[in-house]
Amino acid sequence: MDIVTGITEFAWIGWIVLIAIFLVIEMLTLDFTFLMLGIGGLAGLIADLFGAELWLQVVVAAIVAALLIFLLRPPLLRRLRRGEDPTPSNVAALIGMPALVLSTVTRLGGLVKLSNGETWTARSTDESATIPPQTHVRVDRIDGATAYVTGAPDTSETSEGEQR
């Protein structure tokens, strides 16, 4: 038996191994990509069991996998991620947070206390601005351990006054 005949005769073993590898990778990544490739491999295995040539098995597997990746995977991912908590966390939760200047903030440095109680080194986003202590500011962005802030008018006094 020559090598080409051996490969075509035992291609079903290769398909099963390929499917198993894809499913194990899918269990580690949980992204549905390798699941779709595994189902494509199953289509190639079925084509082999019906007696298709090796090149046709590969084409069937590739077409089925591509269709599944582009047509079935996106709605599955949307359905999976539908229940995620949209609340920002970590650094993203700090963007837009009000803060109080503790020591003068310039473009070179300063210190602010965020409304969550954390104290951060800060810099002004406006290069010409000098923000004095006890001024209310808002966090524009975070870069490493530095909060970039801009002055924000204190609306807590006016909103309390309007409510009375």
The biggest sheet amounts to: 5 strands, mixed, barrel
Query: How far from one another are the termini?
Result: 95 Å
User: Would you report the number of β strands?
Assistant: 5
Beta percentage is 15-25%
Alpha-carbon Rg, integer? 30 Å
Could you report the average pLDDT, rounded to the nearest whole number?
88
Short overview:
The chain has helices at residues 3-9, 11-29, 33-49, 54-81, 156-163, and strands at 98-103, 111-114, 119-124, 136-143, 146-151. It is of the alpha+beta class.
Write structural notes for this entry:
By secondary structure, this protein is an alpha+beta fold. It folds into two domains: 3-81, no CATH class; 90-153, OB fold (Dihydrolipoamide Acetyltransferase, E2P) (Beta Barrel). 48% of the residues lie in helices and 18% in strands. It has five helices and five strands; from the N terminus they run ααααβββββα. It has a five-stranded mixed β-barrel with strand order 1-2-3-5-4. α2 (11-29) packs antiparallel against α3 and α3 (33-49) packs antiparallel against α4 (54-81). The radius of gyration is 30 Å and the shape is rod-shaped. Residues 155-164 have low confidence and may be disordered.
Give short descriptive properties of this protein.
5 strands, rod-shaped, alpha+beta, 164 residues, 5 helices, 2 domains, 5-stranded mixed barrel, OB fold (Dihydrolipoamide Acetyltransferase, E2P)
